Fold this sequence. Notes:
Layout: H1 2-6, H2 13-23, H3 25-49, H4 53-63, H5 66-72, H6 84-111, H7 113-117, H8 120-125, H9 133-159, H10 169-196, H11 200-223, E1 226-228, E2 234-236, H12 248-252, H13 264-286, H14 310-338, H15 340-348, H16 351-356, H17 365-397, H18 400-405, H19 411-444, H20 453-461, H21 464-480, H22 486-505, H23 534-557
Antiparallel strand pairs: 1-2
Helix pairs in contact: 2-9, 3-6, 3-9, 5-11, 6-9, 6-10, 6-11, 9-10, 10-11, 10-13, 14-17, 14-19, 15-17, 17-19, 17-21, 17-22, 19-20, 19-21, 19-23, 21-23
Amino acid sequence: MAQGTNNSIFRNAGRLTGSALKRELSKSGIWLVCLTILTLVGPIELKGLYNTLDSLRSFITVMQIPAMVAMLGPVFLNEKTVSYAAMGTNEMLLLSLLLVAIMNIFYVVRQTRKEEEQGNLEIVRSLPVGRLANLGSTLIGAVVINALISIVTTVALALLHTMDASFTFAGAVNYGMAFFVTGLVFAAIAAIVAQIASTSRGANTIGLIVVAVFYVIRIFGDFAVTVVSPSGATIASSSLKFMSYISPLGLGVQGQPFIKNMIWPYVVLLLAAIVFAVIAFALAQRRDLDAGLIPERQGSEHAPAYLRSNFGLIWRLMKNQLIGWAIVMVAVGATYGSILGVIGNFIKSSTFFSGLFKPVDGYPVEMVFIALLMVVFALVACVPSMLIVLKMHSEEFNAHLDWILTTPVKRLRVIADYLIYALITSVVMVAIASVALWLTALVVTNGPGMHNLWLYIKMIAIYLPAIWAMIGFTAMLVGGAPRNTLSAWSYLGVGFYATYLGRVFLSNNKHWKWVIKISPFGWIPEYPINPLHVWPFVILTAIGIVLMVYGVYAFLQRDLEIG
């Protein structure tokens, strides 16, 4: 019996779990704080904005906007079941689950495939550990991390009972359970992806694609609840409702915290997590160390000419990600463009939205609606540019930059090429989104000005200085504080919430309007609703340049970091 235990394929997985959790302490702590804040912000903000339940009921209409359903999920409330707890968590749950999914993808890939790439797992496997001990310890760590996040968010929501009686303990527990089981599902999916892909970059890419696919699948299911006919009438439909249940993200919100507090969706997700984990272990048994089940594509016998330059190397490293983000920009433009044909009637039928989206200077109400959404396009377009700058830090951390610097290529040339590439990418992504939105508008709209390509380009291009400021902020971190580059994503996330949701809910609140200005995107006017002034663009561009210059200077002065 003792010998069987010693030869177990999971031998010493418990000890490895402690080591993995110790390495993840800082990263998981940041995720824990961010998710807790995100959980609490929605209910607290609603309590401040709507001081009575009658006023809160008007917010149900806001949540039923097609764009809001696509982003935040379905609305399970009606005028009888509305409460601050139910509305606040209904607003934030899907977005929080999306972040939980991403967190688990990164964690599992980092502890499995990344450890193999860096040679650490080979050293560990030379010790008396089982073949599947590392994967087992990683998934045990995922259970611990997700349980901790679930407990903290449950306690945080339960403490809000002092603010409003609708924050019941049962609802808080239900909300925390959604975090726990959804996180485990995506941890298990990431474990499968880590066996399939040959590199950590490939595993992360595939994992994020899976998350995106599940997110889009639930959009179709959530939209299937109501379908607007060409005449403007609303007709009930459930033909695609099942798509909300085949997506872990869609099923994760079906527990309806603080409303029905159902448990069965979480039981299904937990069973799915167990099945996916078993598949991951079976695949791990079949593959060799440092190899994926999908073999790497055989390279050409001779490298292409563009690889003779550092600029060409950046393209080779980022090509697949940039193509993927270009597809994302097309999807975002087409998705929001597709609702332009029906959003006008929806706004006109609501007193609240008629006051929020008023025609400006001859532009139809649809154009005013798009002006608000342009910040979403800009925020999404900012991501690939930031990824390029952070790629240089990744190359440095993995000691790949050392090889480049042994050639005649200088440090200044390396970081300058990455920054130039990021700036070019920002312009290209903005252009792609504009054209995708315009082409969709050609099909679904007939209003005046709705077919003006230059207007769409202008509405989103004015956000370029804000994107450049974010590129500068990222370059400053890479150059001067390389161990804190995660702050770039945190700031972008804060900017999304402060600018997009702030403009919807806080634009008329004089006490909280300053929140919109936290992000550089909040300083860009909503054209054509507001007139354009040159100074915000000049100042933001100058800030971006100064931050880039500082990042370059700091990078040239410090030693390289090697993980």
